[in-house]
Amino acid sequence: MLPTLGYLLLATAFLVCLYGIGASIHGVLAREERWILSARNAMLLSWPLITLSALSLIWLLLTNHFEVQFVWSVTSRSMPTYLKVTSLWGGQAGSLVLWSWLMSAFASVAALRRWDRDREFLPWVVVVVLVTLAFFLSLALFFDNPFSRFWQASNGQTLAAMFPPAGAVPLIPSDGQGLNPLLRHPGMILHPPMLYLGFVSFVIPYSFGMAALITRRSDDRWIRLTRRWTLVGWLFLSLGLVLGARWSYDVLGWGGYWGWDPVEIAAFMPWLTGTAFLHSVMIQEKRGMLKRWNMVLIILTYALVIFATFLTRSGLLSSVHAFAQSSIGPVFFVFIGGTCIISLALLLSRWDDLGGEEHLTSLLSRETLFLVNNLLFLSIVVACFWGVVFPLISQLFTGQQVTVGPPFYQRTTGPLFAGLLLLMGIAPLSAWGHTALQNLGRLILRPFLLSLVLLAVLLAVARLSDPGALLGFWLAGLVALVTLDEFWRSASARSRTHPEALPVALWNLVARDRRRYGGYVIHLGVVLMAIGIVGSQFFQQQTQGTIAQGQEIQLGPYAVRHDSISEWTTNDQRDVTRAVIAVFHGGNQVAELHPRRDYYFVAQQTMTIPGVYSTVQGDLYLILVGWEPIASNGATFKIYWNPLVNFLWCGAVVFILGTLVAAWPDPQRRRSRASAPHWSYVPAKQ
Amino acid sequence: MLPTGPMFPQSSRAARQGPAIRRQLASLFWIGFLGGWAGLLLARGHAVAFQAPAPPPTPSADQVNAVARQLYCPVCANVPLDVCPTQACEQWRAIIREELGQGWTPQQIKDYFVQAYGERVLASPPAQGLNLLVYVLPPLAFVLGAYFLYRAVHPWRRGPGQAESTPPSPPEDEYARRLEEQLRKRS
Questions:
Q1: CA A196 – CA A463 distance, rounded (Å)
Q2: Residue A619: strand, helix, or coil
């Protein structure tokens, strides 16, 4: 009963979307506002319908309805309740429902918040959003139905179908397969919803961009309206990427956090184009330039969002995310192709309308530096995209399978990331229009000299000699000093012109220009992350050894002693093997670690959970590789020393805080929104 | 008995020279003995210096991992061989250990795996044939982008909007004025 209800709710939502698309187009073409209002209501209605459907599925997951194929494939009786809820996105079919649910929620918020002010755009926003939503719903309805049930045919064959095949009887398995063990980590519980939130958020600016093209609005209104949406999307995408990196560090047991896996890269690419877009739109707002380029960027970001989902689902490429593969790849491919062609055709048809109001006037100006920033981001995207698709191209043309792995990405993108860091040190000091070299030199002199002092200290004290690492640390130092100097000069300038103490002046500055100072906080977060990445990439040490109880292995300043190893079986169907390891530094015990291996015997999958001793200097990361029979009590351990890696995680937190500051709504703007003029839905007849 | 008369003068001469010959023979013997011994010693020393390398000690796990890190298993999903926990990768590491034990270089081991399993075992494709495109296209895209950017800026950089923002007042005051102006615009 409940599966049927859930399915019908989903089907109704799909039909409502189709109706909304038709009603909106008809309303605009026939210039009848009531149709547009009706389309808006359809969009609003999609959310409660999909919500009820999603709740039905969650209820089925919670109550062990293993006759439902999806429930059987992702849950089992022994799983705790919270994991049963999160297993909604533990498989393909449920992920599609979650995607649609979040999409409809964002669409509803957009319609409720902007309806009075943005009536010119909204009919087309409704169309674009509902087309995207209908696409995802159609996947759940026709290709990977989360409500399909098991049936036993009269010939004994087991079938999965929504409605009973002729002569078949319901089949109810006694237990399910359980959630993929890799997905039982807190990072993975939050990682997919965060990424999805990021993905669906970017659909909103894209739909406003398309609406601007359709309605021939060549100004920056669509950008101003969606600036916060873009920031929110970017925030969630950043969170999703960071959580994914942490999950990889904690669960995959390889001592790293970013393996340049194709699916990782696929999620990273829309973040890169989104970051380029966030910088580029400022040029359009300030100077009325780059209208075409901003359209290209948002179209590209939308296409990459769908591409990321496509790559995860298609199974075209081997990936650590293979659990999400299914046969819906070709449908995605057609959708990406279709939306790209239509969007670009629309852009080309409006090409002349989108000419710039002004032009670049100097090689040394903020807008030029932002364009260089865009060039670097897009070059990274090209390298990433090329690295991801080249194995397919190679196989297609030569039949030869190749791997494009981390060395390629590190060599190709490393210099580009260094260039971005350098820009972060220069661009905040530049002015719009034109910057005199003399002024720029005067502003950068103090941070530059200080950064050289820092570099000298690194050379003298830490005895670093790797040129790549030195360059990375120097650039990070330069950006940090430039950014902090900006805060200092702004606050002290304000405290001179206003009777305010320095901290108050700083607070008021940030409160009055959150976007700018939030951006600076984000830059500081990037600096910390860069320190963590350079430290852990250039100076990671590792060793492996088999030791009996009481024996030690040395790595750098640490000695680890194997104290004991034990094995047991848990209620949630896994065999656990856990070692007890004492960590010594300078002869003193500083920690006790418990690296372990969990073998999920139903899923026949092993998870390697590291033992980690974290300090500011770095992580001692220890994994249990293997163990001998109990009699000899020997075990093999792999030990990593990841210097400065915690700067990466701290930097991520600062980065997120900065994004929150930049995206936080202005009180003044809230008031002005309330008194916005009441516009017509339908443009006046020419 | 041996004739010792003149009938056999040489013989008698030989008989006379007998002790000298014996001494020479003895000397030859000793020279031969010592030479042979020295030769044996030399030959032995030579053998010590140039004999086939003795089997090196069993390679350590770190040595195996150093090579395995550069290889990918065809059955695993983008996981380097040194960290992959599957049975297949364990066997591959055992092969690497064996080959290192036989004195193979890392490059020889990589070549062996490429020959056996194809180029996909390498972390990056070798720069030849179609694979060259992997390495050429990203820098080419960057250069093209830089060219377009330059073209976008170049015609306009001497345009009317270029005015040197030389501060008429002391630098910090100018900064404060600009900051206030920006904040006023924001408000």
A1: 44
A2: strand
Q: Which residues of B touch A446 (CB under 8 A)?
A: none
Rg (CA), chain B: 43
A322, A375, A542 member nearest B146 (Cβ): A375
The answer, for A138 touching chain B at a CB cutoff of 8 Å, is no
H or E element that contains A170: strand A169-170
- B106 C-beta neighbours (distance < 10 Å), count: 16
- Residue whose entry in the numeric block shows the structure tokens 């000695």: A559
Mutation target to probe the A interface, by most A beta carbons within 10 A, among B72, B83, B122, B166 is B83
Nearest to A401 among B60, B120, B171 (CB): B120
Q: What is the CATH number of domain B56-145?
A: 1.10.8.640
Residues A184-218 have pLDDT tens digits of 877 677 888 898 899 988 999 999 999 999 988 87
User: Taking CB atoms and an 8 Å cutoff, what residues of chain A touch B81?
Assistant: none
**Residue A403 to residue B122, Cβ atoms within 8 A:** yes
Q: Which DSSP symbol is given to A610?
A: P
**Threshold 0.90, pTM exceeds:** no
- Cross-strand pairs, A665: none
Instruction: Give the residue carrying structure tokens 């950043």.
Output: A238
Q: How many CB atoms lie within 10 A of CB A5?
A: 13
- Closest Cβ opposite residue B72 in set A379, A405, A638: A405
Asked if A255 lies within 8 A of B83 by C-beta distance, the reply is yes
Q: From CA A532, how far away is CA A540, in angstroms rounded? A: 11
Mean pLDDT by 10-residue block, N- to C-terminus, for chain A (686 residues)?
92 96 93 90 95 95 92 89 88 88 90 71 91 93 91 86 84 86 77 88 92 87 85 92 90 84 90 94 83 91 88 56 59 87 92 75 83 94 93 86 89 94 91 80 90 90 85 95 92 83 86 88 96 93 90 91 90 87 93 91 83 94 80 81 95 94 73 44 45
Q: What is the pLDDT of residue A581?
A: 94
Instruction: Report the range of poorest mean pLDDT among A333-347, B12-26, B49-63.
Output: B12-26
Residues 6+ apart with CB under 8 A from B41: none
Question: Shortest CB distance from A403 goes to which of B120, B162, B187?
Answer: B120
CB B76 within 8 A of CB B89: yes
Hey, is the C-beta of A382 within 8 angstroms of any chain B C-beta? yes
| Residue-level pLDDT at A649 | 95
With an 8 Å Cβ cutoff, is B179 touching chain A? Answer: yes
pLDDT for the residue numbered A62? 94
The domains of chain B are located at 56-145
Instruction: Tell me which residues of chain B, numbers 64 to 123, contact chain A at a CB-CB cutoff of 8 Å.
Output: 65, 72, 74, 76-80, 83, 85, 118-123
Per-residue confidence (pLDDT) for residue B55, from 0 to 100? 54
Instruction: State the Cα–Cα distance between residues A455 and A462, nearest whole angstrom.
Output: 10
A186 touches chain B (CB under 8 A): no
From CA A26, how far away is CA A19, in angstroms rounded? Answer: 10
**Which of A425, A659, A377 minimizes the C-alpha distance to A527?**
A425
Helices (H), A399-513: 406-426, 437-457, 467-497, 502-512
